[in-house]
Write a structure and sequence with these properties.
Length: 419
């Protein structure tokens, strides 16, 4: 297959610019918020609460968001999502104004940050399903795997640069002006998006009752062994392997590397994932996908344990880099499974379930990491999470021989014949 097939479509290139700008802004914003909150509280549990504040609305609205996405035009819905994020970013820019600390109590600022993060959870519940659905309307089915790889690679590249710039910008220009940069990138995404025309609504059941729609979506996901297996495996791994939520603690109190070292640590997993994803455009991962996914998540768990025990900066960076590389394999395989096996009229609902299983488990994992760090200590909490990841993969491999034998080549060949 042509490794640049998806890039030959102009609208897809514009879409990648939109996605890059949004992920860059969102990932940078999360890091800046983490730094500010921990600086205010010096409490690892406060980092977990950031995740909890986002995951509660994201999960509670996910299924309803999927129904709405399947019923509405995708481009304009994405415009609303990005505009909402821009408003939240501007609010955080105001809250980070240095003069505010002189007139407001730190607890008031902290709770205001939590409130904006909470509102961001509602935006996120719509953002993921809308983006997932829009890709399928831009490129033909036969290049879905290639498009998914480039889209995921763009996501990872933005995840590399966003956290890295966040760490350096905190040191160079401070939290306040870092939030201004984030706001600027969200506006850039909005400008690019208007260059993509509106798309047709593929769902033939417009006006379908909400609960019937949700029931059909859940029935499809839980009835498809490949989709359900991939989502469950990643959810548990991310939930218990969420060591990145504790990076401010490692940077400030364990490794003593400051904000710049924090940026390097936060970017290391995304650098590894980006290299994996760019390589996968030349060497596809769809053959023996089940075995590759299991091995990748197992390796991820080992990396988390090594990171948790490390007191050396260079070893911690390597462990996080490799964790990102193997996590990139997991992400590509999961996205390929979702794109290939999801019918057009259910993309919003399936993507919403995916966000509940995997996307929101990042924030829930952050809460789990913060809570266990408070109860067990930071190092013990990270090692515990890595061990739970290894146990999950082992149990899945033993209990689901069908998933071990999963191979996506047949599905890809069928899509090529259809086109």
């Amino acid at each position: 297959m042509d490794p640049y097939a998806a890039l030959r479509y102009k609208e897809f290139n514009i879409f990648l610019l939109v996605r890059f700008a949004m992920v860059f802004a969102w990932s940078m914003q999360f890091i800046v918020i983490e730094w500010q909150v921990y600086s205010l509280t010096k409490d690892p549990l406060s980092l977990g609460i950031i995740g909890l504040m986002e995951v509660v609305p994201a999960v509670s609205m996910a299924l309803f968001a999927g129904h709405i996405v399947d019923q509405k035009e995708k481009r304009n819905l994405l415009v609303v999502c990005i505009a909402g994020f821009s408003v939240i970013s501007f609010g955080l820019f105001v809250l980070s104004w240095p003069g505010l600390e002189d007139s407001w109590e730190s607890t008031t600022i902290l709770y205001s940050i939590y409130a904006l993060v909470f509102l961001g959870g509602f935006v996120r519940s719509f953002l993921g399903p809308t983006i997932f659905s829009l890709i399928a309307l831009i490129v033909p089915k036969k290049i879905y795997p290639n498009a998914a790889t480039w889209s995921s690679s763009t996501w990872q590249l933005a995840s590399v640069l966003g956290p890295a710039l966040a760490g350096f910008s905190i040191s160079w220009i401070g939290v306040h002006w870092s939030m201004c940069v984030i706001f600027g990138f969200s506006l850039m995404a909005l400008i690019f998006l208007f260059q993509i025309p509106k798309k047709p609504i593929m769902n033939p059941k417009i006006g379908e009752p909400v609960f019937q729609s949700l029931r059909d979506g859940l029935k499809f996901v839980f009835g498809n062994k490949a989709i359900f297996g991939a989502l469950t495996l990643d959810m548990i791994a991310v939930l218990f392997g969420g060591a990145v939520a504790l990076l401010p603690v490692y940077a400030q109190d364990i490794l003593h590397v400051g904000s710049e070292g924090f940026g390097v640590l936060r970017a290391a997993p995304a650098v590894g994932a980006s290299i994996t994803m760019l390589g996968s455009t030349k060497f596809p991962l769809h053959k023996n996908a089940g075995k590759k996914l299991l091995m990748a998540v197992f390796a991820f768990g080992i990396c988390i344990i090594v990171f948790g025990l490390s007191e050396l900066f260079w070893l911690s960076v390597i462990a996080l880099f490799v964790s990102g590389a193997v996590d990139g394999i997991s992400m590509i395989i999961r996205q390929t499974i979702l794109q290939i096996k999801t019918p057009d009229n259910m993309r919003g609902r399936v993507a919403s379930v995916n966000s509940m299983f995997v996307g929101s488990s990042n924030e829930l994992g952050a809460f789990e990491s913060g809570l266990t760090a408070k109860l067990m200590g930071t190092v013990t909490a990270v090692v515990f999470g890595g061990c739970m990841t290894l146990l999950t993969v082992s149990a899945t491999a033993i209990a689901s021989p069908t998933f071990r034998r999963l191979d996506l080549q047949k599905d890809i060949d069928e899509h090529e014949r259809e086109d």
